[in-house]
Design goal:
By secondary structure, the chain is of the alpha/beta class. It is built from 21 helices and 15 strands. The strands form four sheets. Strands 11-10-9-12-13-15-14 form a seven-stranded mixed sheet, sandwiched between helices. A four-stranded antiparallel sheet has the order 1-2-3-4.
């Protein structure tokens, strides 16, 4: 047996056409749909150290971990079932369409709920009521025999022998159940994914790189397997139920006090249910102790679990191993990196459910929740105002939404992801070469258009994406003729600005010039506009991640006090502004009055006035010459 020098806390389980892995702070499920496409879902869970102290107490922790694993495992199983069969809108049945339209409920949700209910009923019947019923028949036969004559041995419904037989039957039924499942191809496939899960974890614990070839060569037996845990639960339950039953029925005297056989069985059932947490806690601690060592001395204790694992695991294919590796590596990454993003399966889903999930996650990552509405509206090509109307989003639509959603979680601005934004009614393409035009800048455009006269010449400094120049040119051309020059120090920004001008059919009316403010400019202009960098140098590090890490710093940094560019403009503007002309500038919050002082001191201006934006902030300065 290989020595494990790299033991991990990561565990997992097989799901439908995939594998779920669970770590300390995250769980990930990798599933292949019926077209062979690999899908990954990963979410964060509460780590043990952040749970209440009593949940980490020996024996109690076993109950907590068992319940959490059961709940998370069931959720992963149900989620995998939604992905394993890819959605085919063309083949959607009339019934499914009617259910979705009439009740706003996915037909898949109904099927999942019914399947879950039937699964619970069958499990209770097979492993709880059937063993009790069969043991009751034996009990009745023994009682009938000794009622005819002779003294009855110490048996009783709560006695040790009674519970030993009931536990033995439960174990036998469990083994028979596993053998029965081997008949079905789909379950044999699940057992192969179970084998892939074990092999992947073993490969990591052996200290080998997680490659398909390395995983193939590893054992499909593992000490922390859920199959071994169930076996331990069955064995421990025999001992615990026998002891507790004997105490209550024999020592306490409930068998003598309760004459009804049916009532005695009911009391026993309640006692066993109450004792289940104790059984789970003891079994967990034993499993944990056995998994700490690979010593041959412990092999006899592990052997029964290994034998059962020979039935519940099978040799996996390369594709199955890839699923297990993908899930394992994602969990490990998320445990090690708190910034590693979550991922969600693209499945048929209710609009309101998907939107609520996105908003909740965005809020946790300090991302504007309105971005979730924009993502859904733009992906489905519907207005934001209609998002309150419930509808079922098909798998293809859900995938389109989630691709954008997951990229947004990386911090990249939404409009860079979309590739364009709306500005003053015009579509402006944006990416990391330029600053994203803000709605407040539309105030500047409005004032600029209102000031234009026939034949005016316009200069737009720091044009970036060209949004201001394009909007001014397009609006002015509706009733007058003007010429526009757009300048920027960045050739990359100018390249994008020219593309935007061509798209908005304003290229003929705009001349683009590479220039550091006025350095490359010739002539005088009736109107000069500018939205220069105005963020204080020391405040850039505290900006939102999407601005700080993605938008061009050259378009943000305005120097120590944020006013460097305004000083440079004020120093030279008189050379380039025509008599009777106007300079319109955008500025940051609480900067307007300081900027006016700069122009009063450094330029020959006639007047200056401030225009507030929709939030009441002094946003635009109009300076007359």
């Amino acid at each position: 047996m290989k020595k494990k020098n790299n033991r991990t806390y990561i565990g997992g389980q097989a799901v439908i056409q995939g594998v779920m892995m669970r770590g300390k702070s995250a769980m990930a499920t990798a599933v292949r749909d019926d077209k062979g496409v690999l899908h990954l879902e990963a979410k964060r869970i509460k780590p043990p150290e952040k749970r209440k102290k009593w949940t980490r107490v020996p024996f109690l922790r076993g109950v907590v971990n068992f319940v959490l694993s059961l709940v998370d495992g069931m959720k992963a199983l149900l989620r995998s079932s939604e992905v394993a069969v890819a959605d085919d809108e063309e083949n959607s049945t009339k019934f499914s369409a009617w259910v979705e339209e009439k009740w706003k409920i996915s037909a898949g949700d109904i099927l999942t709920a019914v399947s879950t209910f039937l699964g619970i009923v069958i499990a209770l019947g097979l492993f709880f009521f059937l063993p009790g019923y069969l043991t009751g028949l034996i009990d009745n036969a023994v009682r009938a025999k000794y009622a005819a004559g002779g003294s009855m041995p110490h048996w009783g419904q709560g006695g040790i022998f009674y519970n030993l037989i009931e536990g033995g039957m439960r174990l036998a039924i469990f083994v028979c159940y596993i053998l029965f499942t081997l008949i079905f191809k789909s379950l044999r496939e699940t057992y192969r994914y179970h084998g892939a899960e074990h092999k992947t974890i073993n490969c990591y614990e052996y200290g080998l790189p997680l490659t398909k070839e390395n995983v193939k060569g590893c054992s499909r037996m593992h000490d922390r397997c859920g199959t071994t845990f169930i076996f331990l639960v069955l064995i421990i339950s025999i001992l615990v139920f026998s002891l507790v039953g004997w105490v209550f029925m024999g020592v306490v005297g409930l068998e003598r006090a309760i004459s009804s056989s049916v009532l005695r069985r009911l009391v026993l059932a309640v006692i066993k249910i109450v004792c289940l947490p104790l059984v789970a806690g003891i079994s967990y601690e034993i499993l944990k102790l056995l998994s700490l060592s690979s010593s041959p001395v412990l092999f006899p204790l592990k052997a029964p679990g290994y034998l059962l694992q020979l039935l519940t695991t099978r040799e996996p294919t390369d594709e199955m191993i890839e699923c297990a590796i993908t899930a394992f590596e994602k969990v490990k990454e998320m445990d090690e990196d708190p910034e590693s993003p979550e991922k969600i399966f693209a499945t048929e889903v209710k609009l309101t459910k998907l939107l609520a999930m996105m908003k909740k996650t965005f809020a946790a990552h300090e991302i504007d929740e309105a971005d979730a509405e924009w993502i859904v509206a733009l992906s489905l090509n519907i207005p934001r105002s209609s998002l309150k109307e419930e509808r079922i989003i098909k798998q293809a639509g859900c995938k389109k939404i989630l691709d954008i959603y997951e990229e947004r979680l990386t911090g990249r601005p939404l409009w860079y992801i979309i590739g364009n934004t709306d500005f003053y009614g015009y579509r402006i393409k944006v990416d990391e070469r330029v600053l994203i035009p803000r709605p407040e800048t539309e105030v500047l455009v409005r004032e600029a258009v209102a000031s234009l006269r026939e034949g005016d010449s316009v200069l737009d400094l720091c044009t970036g994406s060209g949004a201001i120049a394009i909007a001014v040119s397009a609006e002015a051309s509706k009733d007058k003729t003007v010429t526009v020059t757009a300048a920027d120090i960045s050739e990359e920004a100018l390249e994008l600005a020219r593309e935007n001008a061509r798209y908005n059919k304003t290229a003929a009316g705009i001349t683009f010039v590479k220039s550091d403010l006025f350095e490359g400019i010739r002539g005088k202009f009736n109107l000069i506009t500018a939205n220069p960098p105005y963020v204080k140098h020391g405040e850039i590090a505290s900006l939102q991640r999407e601005v700080r890490d993605f938008e061009p710093r050259i378009a943000l940094d305005g120097g120590v006090d944020g006013l460097d560019f305004y000083r440079r403009i004020a120093a030279k503007v008189n050379r380039y502004i025509a008599r009777g002309g106007m300079l319109i500038l955008e500025c940051g919050e609480n900067q307007a009055q300081e900027i006016i002082k700069i122009f009063n001191q450094s330029s020959r201006c006639d007047y200056a006035m401030v225009v507030r934006d929709l939030n009441g902030i002094e946003r635009v300065i109009k300076i007359g010459f």
